């Protein structure tokens, strides 16, 4: 088939199919987010126009924003579908590097298609080209290399035939999932070639379920049999494997308390008697108490990042860790006993291997006891008032939590809101008619903690959830700092007709970093608007967020400062109704107290100078951490 390189790429994309966790067959590539420029408008842009009924293109306003929406889309489909994003060479391409970092850190598949400079070099230097004096092969797209799972620069049309199978492999491999970057020089995009027709035959990609090594599995079982206080840690790999029910069945069969990581959140119903709560720095004291007492930890589908392990001070001295992970890279961390395999299949085989074994009932019952104490604490936060009578973050989360059903989806990313959702959210019971592979209902982007993700991610998540949960609604929660950093895709979502609710908590600055700063004894500086340089620090220069969101095409619920919990609840319910009625985003603007937080009491390592009051506590915690080094 005589096609341009760009035409061949998009026709191949259309031919690729995927299988959702429930078994339904869907396109692997659900669409393309695009901003066109001289580096992609005629080659890839023309090819996309020709197939827009089969591969829809959605117009973004900011390259980083639309690529982040693509990341959120993939997460909302449990990594079973992918969006692509394309931008022109130069600043447009570089704007997507941050989104690639988000996808790489969180192991989320996304296809990025930046334009590139001419391979012929005939017109060099071209507009937006960055010249490297000693290496003419380098372009700005080489900045993607550190944040790509797979990177290629297509300098000949026929290269597609060898690289595209690798693209599909990375996007659908549970151990290697992440961002794929294909840099597309603009002259090569338009170059024609006789491609074999077989290249465009439909192909179904099933995510493989690798079984564990039998010897490693047997050794893991022996370690667990010696445990007096075992703990099951459920991570994102359990979500992407569709193994939530198998994880709970394992816990029930063997009487093992279960806790969740940030990426594994909402997989366990809150009222389950074995649920100990969310683990880590921004989690619950209940889960952290269990982790500190456990003698064997079974960590399934988690990369054990610092917010999960409390910078490796959260587990007891001498604890033994058994990891189950699709990626050997993650499984072998901290000299754990590694079992490499799919979470669902490994848990099933491990349950069978451990037949007849269960934990001591006194330990089993401790999960509910610890969680009850934490629940009382969260109830007090939800019903208590801030010192000045304003709303607290816990109250905002409680209102959204109470109004959300099993088909709804909630997300956030940076600042203090991840701690409020991770620590305070209560997952409801599973629907009686739910699929055995029903996935999570929360997206906490706390692998890269990218400010702005939570403002644009609802757009991608809403597109994804509309396919599988048409009666549900996506809600994003974030602060004024994130809104000011990246809000343009609210207009994109309004323009495209994708409804969701965005709850904007105006707390007067970067309040969570102000907390980190002042809690260690440093002076408040350059985080809150009130302690930043300029005459506006006196409060005379303030953003009218409600007016701004309206100007972007959103409907708005502006909650008066003195409206209290009842006022916010009414506004949020009205916002849900408005989003569904208008088919556009609705933004709820509320004022929250900047320093009333949900605290788990765990330690997080940040460099503390000796001159600050927090240095002594830092030194003590480092001593606890040393046993892991």
Automatic annotation (TrEMBL):
Belongs to the TPP enzyme family. GO terms for biological process: inositol catabolic process; isoleucine biosynthetic process; L-valine biosynthetic process. Its EC number is 3.7.1.22. GO terms for cellular component: acetolactate synthase complex. Keywords: Hydrolase, Thiamine pyrophosphate. InterPro entries: DHS-like_NAD/FAD-binding_dom, Myo_inos_IolD, THDP-binding, Thiamin_PyroP_enz_cen_dom, Thiamin_PyroP_enz_TPP-bd_dom, TPP_enz, TPP_enzyme_TPP-bd. Residues 217-350 form the Thiamine pyrophosphate enzyme central domain. Residues 442-589 form the Thiamine pyrophosphate enzyme TPP-binding domain. It is an enzyme of class 3 (hydrolase). The keyword Hydrolase applies. This is 3D-(3,5/4)-trihydroxycyclohexane-1,2-dione acylhydrolase (Decyclizing). The lineage of its organism: Bacteria, Bacillati, Actinomycetota, Actinomycetes, Propionibacteriales. It comes from Nocardioides immobilis. One of its GO terms (molecular function) is thiamine pyrophosphate binding. Residues 32-128 form the Thiamine pyrophosphate enzyme N-terminal TPP-binding domain.
């Amino acid at each position: 088939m005589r096609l341009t390189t760009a035409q061949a790429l998009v026709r191949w994309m259309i031919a690729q199919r995927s299988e959702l966790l429930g078994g339904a067959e869907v396109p692997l590539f659900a669409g393309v987010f695009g901003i066109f420029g001289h580096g992609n408008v005629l080659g890839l842009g023309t090819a996309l126009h020709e197939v827009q009924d089969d591969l829809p293109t959605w117009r973004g306003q900011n390259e980083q924003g639309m690529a982040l929406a693509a990341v959120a889309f993939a997460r909302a489909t449990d990594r079973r579908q992918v969006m692509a994003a394309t931008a022109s060479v130069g600043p447009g391409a570089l704007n997507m590097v941050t989104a690639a970092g988000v996808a790489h850190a969180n192991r989320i598949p996304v296809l990025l298609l930046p334009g590139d400079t001419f391979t012929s070099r005939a017109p060099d230097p071209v507009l937006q080209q960055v010249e490297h004096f000693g290496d003419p092969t380098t372009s700005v797209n080489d900045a993607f290399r550190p944040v790509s799972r797979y990177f290629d620069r297509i300098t000949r049309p026929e290269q597609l035939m060898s690289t595209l199978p690798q693209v599909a492999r990375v996007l659908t491999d549970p151990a290697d999932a992440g961002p794929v970057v294909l840099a597309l020089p603009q002259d090569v995009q338009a170059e024609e070639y006789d491609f074999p027709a077989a290249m465009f035959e439909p192909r179904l990609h099933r995510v493989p379920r690798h079984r564990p090594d039998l010897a490693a599995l047997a050794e893991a079982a022996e370690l667990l049999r010696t445990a007096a206080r075992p703990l099951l840690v459920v991570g994102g790999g359990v979500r992407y494997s569709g193994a939530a029910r198998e994880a709970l069945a394992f816990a029930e069969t063997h009487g093992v308390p279960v806790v969740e990581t940030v990426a594994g959140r909402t997989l366990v119903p809150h009222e389950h008697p074995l649920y100990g709560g969310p683990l880590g720095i921004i989690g619950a004291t209940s889960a952290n108490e269990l982790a500190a007492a456990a003698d064997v930890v079974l960590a399934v589908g988690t990369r054990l990042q610092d917010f999960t392990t409390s910078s490796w001070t959260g587990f007891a001295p001498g604890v033994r860790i058994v990891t189950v992970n699709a990626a050997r890279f993650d499984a072998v961390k901290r000299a754990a006993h590694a079992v490499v395999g799919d979470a669902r299949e490994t848990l099933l085989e491990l349950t069978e291997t451990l037949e007849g074994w269960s934990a001591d009932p006194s330990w089993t019952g401790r999960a509910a006891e610890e969680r009850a104490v934490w629940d009382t604490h969260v109830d007090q936060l939800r019903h208590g008032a801030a010192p000045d009578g304003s709303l607290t973050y816990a109250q905002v989360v409680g209102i959204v939590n109470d109004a959300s059903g099993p088909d709804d989806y909630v997300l956030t990313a940076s600042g203090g809101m991840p701690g409020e959702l991770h620590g305070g959210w209560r997952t409801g019971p599973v629907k009686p008619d739910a699929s055995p592979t029903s996935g999570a209902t929360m997206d906490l982007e706390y692998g890269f903690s990218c400010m702005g993700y939570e403002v644009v991610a609802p757009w991608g998540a809403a597109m994804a959830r509309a396919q599988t949960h048409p009666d549900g609604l996506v809600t994003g929660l974030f602060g004024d700092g994130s809104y000011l950093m990246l809000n343009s895709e609210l207009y994109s979502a309004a323009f495209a007709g994708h409804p969701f609710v965005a709850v904007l908590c105006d707390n007067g600055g970067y309040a969570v970093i102000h907390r980190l700063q002042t809690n260690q004894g440093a002076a408040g500086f350059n985080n809150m608007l009130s302690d930043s340089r300029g005459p506006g620090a006196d409060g005379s220069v303030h953003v009218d967020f409600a007016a701004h969101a309206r100007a972007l095409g959103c409907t708005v619920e502006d909650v008066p400062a003195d409206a209290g919990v009842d006022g916010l609840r009414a506004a949020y319910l009205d916002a849900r109704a408005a989003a569904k009625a208008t088919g556009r985003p609705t933004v709820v603007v509320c004022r929250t107290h900047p320093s009333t937080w949900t605290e788990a009491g765990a330690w997080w390592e940040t460099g503390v100078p000796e001159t600050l009051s927090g240095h002594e506590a830092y030194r003590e915690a480092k001593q606890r951490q040393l046993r892991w080094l």
